[in-house]
Amino acid sequence: MTPTDPKRPTNGSAAEASRRKRIVWVNVALVAAFIAVVALAFALLRPQTAPPETGGPSSSDAAAPTVRADSHVLGEPGTSGVTVVEFLDFECEACGAFHPLVEQLREDYAGEVTFVTRYFPLDGHLNSRNAAVAAEAAAQQGAFEPMYAKLFETQAEWGEQRESRAPLFREFAGELGLDLDAYDAAVADPATLERVESDLIDGISLGVQSTPTFFVDDEMLRLEAYDDLAAGIEAALRATGD
């Protein structure tokens, strides 16, 4: 009978070693997949931080109003007196992730809560100002909300690009039935960009540093989860009943 070589595993021990090795690799793969899912969720929920601004209002200046006469109201104003203001960047992925929630809340609180949108284009996004200008040009033809929706619905097509997508935004204007001559004139008018920048300046004055940033009745919300926005609205509605 030939003795077993102590340096070589038997068939049984070799199979056991192979089984353990497979288990180790499966566990490694599961951990890696879990980490990837957590990282993706964090990336979607984590606000996009705005770069430092120079030349804006100093800390000693009085804060700007959260809503101005020319601010864009989505749908009809509510009757409760509660107002939700969102400072957003159309190219911001976190804003895109919150967009369906905002739409659901608009439906849930229709006729009760007023929802207002303000621009806060970030320097790190090449097309954020182009998108805001497109929305503002559409607003001059009474089509802010359709362009607002279109930009978020198509964000994956044009976001994070290293070239201007202004021509694509013009195509959107055509699809929405806008007068393209008037649209082109509005886009070329420096006053349109100034209108966008005025929201940005107000946001900086109000302490906005990232997008999306929400205010409920002039109070900035600190969002850590999607439900925090609905909770802030509910708290404001209860306060109006006091």
Structure explained in plain terms:
- The protein is of the alpha+beta class.
- It has two domains: 9-45; 72-240, 3-Layer(aba) Sandwich (Glutaredoxin).
- The chain is 52% helix and 11% strand.
- It has nine helices and seven strands, in the order H-E-E-E-H-E-H-H-H-H-H-H-E-E-E-H.
- The strands form two sheets. It has a five-stranded mixed β-sheet with strand order 2-4-3-6-7. Strands 1-5 form a two-stranded antiparallel sheet.
- Helix 3 packs across helix 7 and helix 3 packs across helix 8.
- Mean pLDDT is 83; it is low at 1-9 and 23-60.
Approximate helicity band: 40-55%
Query: Element order, helices and strands?
Result: HEEEHEHHHHHHEEEH
Q: Give me the CATH fold name of the largest domain.
A: Glutaredoxin
What's the total count of β strands?
7
Number of folding domains? Answer: 2
Please count the helical segments: 9
Q: Structural class, please?
A: alpha+beta
Proportion of beta-strand residues: 5-15%
CATH class of the largest domain: Alpha Beta
- CATH superfamily grouping of the largest domain: Glutaredoxin
Distance between termini?
Answer: 94 Å
Low-confidence parts, pLDDT < 50 over ≥5 residues? 1-9, 23-60
Question: What is this structure's SSE topology?
Answer:
Layout: H1 11-45, E1 48-49, E2 72-74, E3 82-88, H2 93-108, E4 113-119, H3 128-139, H4 144-153, H5 155-158, H6 166-175, H7 180-188, H8 190-205, E5 210-211, E6 213-216, E7 219-220, H9 227-240
Helix pairs in contact: 3-4, 3-6, 3-7, 3-8
Features:
242 residues, 2 domains, alpha+beta, disordered N terminus, 9 helices, 52% helix
